[in-house]
């Protein structure tokens, strides 16, 4: 899906790692949320509350999730369990969509 219909956008940006990772939150009519964002080259560690599906829209990255290492490219996605930590290394700019799983 290239577009989302009938959503609200939270104006305030989510800014992490001194501005190297930014996103905007989309809120859907059913209350579900997604974020659309960009990660600049670097390595970042995230802690999750809810389970997430991270879809890589452009670029590629290496993800360390538990004992697993994943190489994820544009058009691919990976699942992140709730209450977990993952590290992501971006050798180039990565455009992503994060869907929060209830």
UniProtKB/TrEMBL annotation:
Keywords: Glycosyltransferase, Transferase. Pfam families: Ppnp. InterPro entries: Ppnp (IPR009664), RmlC-like_jellyroll (IPR014710), RmlC_Cupin_sf (IPR011051). Its EC number is 2.4.2.1, 2.4.2.2. It comes from the Bacteria. It is an enzyme of class 2 (transferase). It catalyses: xanthosine + phosphate = alpha-D-ribose 1-phosphate + xanthine; uridine + phosphate = alpha-D-ribose 1-phosphate + uracil; cytidine + phosphate = cytosine + alpha-D-ribose 1-phosphate; guanosine + phosphate = alpha-D-ribose 1-phosphate + guanine. PANTHER family: PYRIMIDINE/PURINE NUCLEOSIDE PHOSPHORYLASE, PYRIMIDINE_PURINE NUCLEOSIDE PHOSPHORYLASE. Catalyzes the phosphorolysis of diverse nucleosides, yielding D-ribose 1-phosphate and the respective free bases. Can use uridine, adenosine, guanosine, cytidine, thymidine, inosine and xanthosine as substrates. Also catalyzes the reverse reactions. Belongs to the nucleoside phosphorylase PpnP family. This is Pyrimidine/purine nucleoside phosphorylase. The gene is ppnP.
């Amino acid at each position: 899906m290239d577009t989302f219909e009938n959503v609200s956008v939270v104006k305030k940006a989510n800014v992490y790692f001194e501005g190297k990772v930014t996103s905007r939150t989309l809120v859907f009519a059913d209350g579900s949320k997604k974020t659309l964002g960009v990660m600049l080259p670097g390595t970042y560690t995230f802690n999750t509350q809810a389970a997430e599906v991270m879809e890589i829209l452009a670029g590629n990255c290496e993800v360390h999730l538990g004992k697993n290492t994943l190489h994820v490219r544009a058009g691919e996605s990976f699942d992140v369990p709730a209450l977990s930590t993952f590290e992501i290394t971006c050798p180039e700019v990565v455009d992503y969509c994060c869907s929060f799983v209830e």
